[in-house]
Amino acid sequence: MGIFAILIFLFLGSVEGFSTKSQPCHYSKDRMCKPALANAIFSTVAFVLGAVTSLVSGFLGMKIATYANARTTLEARKGVGKAFIIAFRSGAVMGFLLAASGLVVLYIAINLFGIYYGDDWEGLFESITGYGLGGSSMALFGRVGGGIYTKAADVGADLVGKVERNIPEDDRRNPAVIADNVGDNVGDIAGMGSDLFGSYAESSCAALVVASISSFGINHEFTPMLYPLLISSIGIIACLITTLFATDFLEIKAVDEIEPALKKQLIISTIVMTVGIALVSWLGLPYTFTIFNFGAQKTVYSCPVQDVADSCRTGAATNVIFGLALGYKSVIIPIFAIAFSIFLSFSLAAMYGVAVAALGMLSTIATGLAIDAYGPISDNAGGIAEMAGMSHRIRERTDALDAAGNTTAAIGKGFAIGSAALVSLALFGAFVSRAAISTVDVLTPKVFIGLIVGAMLPYWFSAMIMKSVGSAALKMVEEVRRQFNTIPGLMEGTTKPDYATCVKISTDASIKEMIPPGALVMLTPLIVGIFGVETLSGLLAGALVSGVQVGTFFFMAILSSIYFLPCCIDNHTASIQIAISASNTGGAWDNAKKYIEAGASEHARTLGPKGSDCHKAAVIGDTIGDPLKDTSGPSLNILIKLMAVESLVFAPFFATHGGILFKWF
Length: 665
Known about the structure:
It is found in: Endomembrane system. The protein is mostly helical.
């Protein structure tokens, strides 16, 4: 963070040779704006603010989740309803903490920066973009590092524990079980929290930048200018009302009421938020206004498993083939949905509409994070119950909570990938506007080479992460095997394993291995920008299209858990039919394994039991899918967002000094 902050200052300060004299405004040449050196200083400060806010939110989220894990386990002795309330409220604390802290820090920064900038709103909100860059850069390391940590432990624990030693999941005899449970907090709590915080910060900054060069900024209309922040404010109130339905108004009395209660959270929050946004739009926006649209002003008016499980009969290879086929096919519907959203929002209010659409998705971020954090809290509650040797009845209750928690993981990743696509496009539009590019012509060689390199980046990035997970998992497997083979009495349960060594393997691997992919993402725009803004615009377009496709493929890998997991607990045969059509890739492999383990139907019992060749094939498929759905896929969201917001922050430098290399030829 410190090194990159220095780069921001040096690059942006050099635009005007570190001059302290006022310069003509970029968009309004008849007016004078603050010097580039001021933009460099305030952008650097905003970057640090965003990064620190992201780090603190992730740290506090992990702290809350760690306290909540054991409490949820203990409450499960009284019933599934009591345990649900503890787990959900704990997730809600993190959700509201992140949403509120992100909003208040951004609002304070705008007002403090405004003391210096005065009427120069163009410079003010251009410097604020550093806030989004800071949040997203820390999200990259949270996602990549957290994903490597949790999947190295998960894969090592499953391969040796389940496949080779045939012991239950979360068995305290497994040396990797502590690292596995810690990894849930690192990857699913801190990683997801920082990811969604980055999306929130970037979408807010993109909307503010576009608004500052539109009629809101030109006419200095403060309330309409802060319309993006008003949306987020109303979102917090809407989520607070929604949370009461899960914890106070509707009491959970049975296992089959858990998942409907979580789904109602999304429905209720959407309804309440729709009313709230309509009210804010009516009160906060003028009847007609103009939005900057690629060099022109656009006038806007008031808005009117079972298949996968069966494939395990013939081994792991066919299991993998079936899962991949489902994953590729499942990209279709989400892409059409995103495309429709982009078309409609852009038609209404150009790139500002796209940015506001992303904020609309993220307006219920508190509820989204609440139900997402609920997942790993419930998962670890089950692990604690198993390791503590508590009764089988308590483990059944925590498993029921965990089943619904797998659903919430899909919901969280859905927020992430959908908002990432919209946010990245909005940031791309803001960058193109700031770099004074009217069109991006793919037939131009400068643009086309950037396009194909950008399309390649998500695959290079994914390859680096997958290799890192594989290397760390290999060390974990070797260590777990060593302990089982050399520690007397470990399998009999008379001796404790060396948990600390396994934790150290995951920790060291996550810290070391996250640096290369992080450097790839953060340095690529800086290097390509030297070739010119046209080449960089091609890079961003290629990475956006390719990254969304690959990211959606990985996201849809876990979407099947929405439909599948309850049938494992409740034995609803009809739900299994939905699972057949929804299961795909990592989620399909994961759920095929759970389907066999649960033995909740006659068909499932013919594939089992645990330890059978069919079950071992399912476990292998699950371990292959783990890094796909929990490491590479989620990290791609940040790749496309981070490169876009970084390009926007450095746009003044690239517009002034870019294209140097091409000038030599």
